[in-house]
Design brief:
Strand content: 15-25%
CATH architecture: 3-Layer(aba) Sandwich
Number of strands: 8
Number of helices: 6
Helix content: 25-40%
Shape: globular
Order of helices and strands: EHEHEEEHEHEHHE
Largest sheet: 6 strands, parallel
Structural class: alpha/beta
Length: 190
């Protein structure tokens, strides 16, 4: 059973302070399991998150962070205005539509309440702030795909899982993606 995808965008204001989730929405999501997703993420991550949400008797919040946008200001009624870093505004909207469709396909038979939230800004900080607002019980993320390009990007930006582990107190489930690196192979190619 799925809640409708949220049209609201959450994140942080220019000073890095969390923006409030509307009170009624935050109460409905209290104690949720949050799962960070991007379009094309293997279904395994959503399935694991749903399994833990069911075990914890908690709602599941599928979180997509639009890294191409930043928050400009928030209205007194809680509506968040954001602006694109790039002129291609449609990219974030199409990514949200893909994430919502993929989540619906994977979670259609899950016997848990779930919803989709789109946040903006830095993925680790945005997820941390939403987790604080709804008092999330667990954060779920997937590993990065293997490859030199991904290794270089992770070296410069850090993994979302590692940054979450150092910036908040909740448990994090990191779901491995792809084939594991053999014991005799270097994780960081030289």
């Amino acid at each position: 059973m799925a809640d409708e995808a949220s049209d609201s965008m959450q994140g942080a204001d220019a000073g890095g302070e969390p923006l409030p989730v509307p009170e009624a929405e935050a109460e409905a999501l209290r104690g949720a399991v949050l799962v960070g997703v991007v379009p094309g993420l293997p279904a395994r991550v959503l399935k694991e998150a749903a399994r833990y949400a069911k075990l914890l008797n908690a709602p599941l919040v599928v979180v997509h962070v639009d890294v191409t946008r930043f928050i400009t200001y928030e209205d007194p009624d809680g509506y968040v205005h954001s602006a694109p870093i790039d002129i291609n505004v449609a990219a974030g909207e199409s990514d949200l539509a893909l994430v919502t469709a993929e989540a619906a396909a994977v979670l259609e038979r899950a016997e848990i309440p779930w919803s989709v939230q789109q946040l903006v800004g830095d993925p680790a900080l945005a997820m941390k702030q939403l987790a604080d607002q709804v008092e999330a019980r667990l954060l779920v993320v997937g590993t990065r795909k293997r490859g030199l390009g991904e290794s270089i990007r992770e070296f410069f930006t850090g993994s979302v899982a590692a940054r979450l582990a150092h910036r908040q107190h909740r448990p994090i489930l990191v779901v491995p993606l792809g084939e594991p690196v053999p014991d005799d192979e270097e994780i960081w190619p030289g």
